[in-house]
Amino acid sequence: NNQKLKTAKLILFILFFLLFEILILGIPSIFFPFGRDQATGAYVANLWLAGKLPYIHAVEVRPPANYLPFMFVQYFWGDSELGIRILDLVLIYFSSVLVFLIGKNGISRRVGFISAILFPIFYYGYFNFWYSCQMEGWQNFFILCEIFLYLKNSKYLFSAFDFLAGFCFGISILFKFTSLPIVFLFLILILVRNRDKQSTALGKILNG
Q1: Residue 96: is its pLDDT beyond 80?
Q2: Sign of dihedral through CA atoms 188, 190, 191, 197?
Q3: Quick check: 92 and 123 in contact, CB under 8 A?
């Protein structure tokens, strides 16, 4: 019980530390104006909410999910740059938590913590906020979800975690097509993982 309590306190400390770090690094982005890409996303989202369609009423080449965060913010918040900036802070916080969990489950808690600390530093650390509120941030979030879910399945050949990982992968493609090469990596990882599991299962059967 004491060990569990210490572990819970440590996890809670890490979560609050990440929140504090991201607020320190990211709050200045709230006062940063939209760049070309963010403005385009907001404009297309505004047209979409008005009943018009991207690619038809606005010339744009990015995948459609890129406009959904802007649509969400505009629907609930109105035409404001502040809303999408705050949503970006929330996104980076949960992405950092996922980085911690992936490192913790895949290697060690220390590696997870260090990686989670570095993630927002590389994202916000240069204070060049032209690159925030971009589709890469959402793409990365769903890729991290995919990796986390993949690591959750350690017992079965295939499980609901694999299905959800594939679902997250599909969403990441809708944000940016550069996610496509990742599918080959995960196919290889799943095949290797399942080969080991099949060998273990076969050994159990042969041993009675």
Answers
A1: yes
A2: positive
A3: yes
